[in-house]
Amino acid sequence: SDEIEKAEFHFKVAEAYYHMKQTHVSMHHILQALDIYQNHPLYSIRTIQSLFVIAGNYDDFKHYGKALPHLEAALKLAMDIQNDRFLAISLLNIANSYDRSGDDQMAVEHFQKAAKVSREKVPDLLPKVLFGLIWTLCKAGQTQKAFHFIEEGLNRNT
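-> C-alpha cells emitted (158 positions)
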C-alpha cells in the first residue's frame, strides 16, 4: 500500500529485467517506478537511476537518440541536487550514447566534461571516462590526442 515501496519493487524488477536484456518488461516497470519517484522530491537519486535504466533500455534497442533526453534530464537533476558522482556518470552515459550513435565530436566533448568532474570530484570514475575518451579519439583518427590521455591514465595508476 506504500507508494515508495511500490516504486522500489518496480525499480528492482526493472533492473533485474534490464540485466537479463528483457527490455520491454524492464521498461514497463521502470516507467511505473519513475512516475512515483518524480512525485517525491526526496527520491531524486532514484529518479536519476530510473532515467539511467530507461536510457539503457533504449541503448539496448540501439535508439540512442531516444536515450539522450533521459540522460540529459538525469544530468540536470544531478546538477540541481549538486551530486558530483551522478553528474559525472550522467556525462559519461551521454558520451557513451553519442559514441555508439557515431557522433564522435559530441562524445569527445562529453567525455572531456566527465573527465573534468572526475578529476576534481570523483577520481574513482576517471579510468572508465579516460578509456571511453581514448576509444572514441582512436576511432576518430585522433591518435595523438588519445596518447595524451593514455599517458594521463598510466600516470594516475603509478
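The chain has a mean pLDDT of 96.
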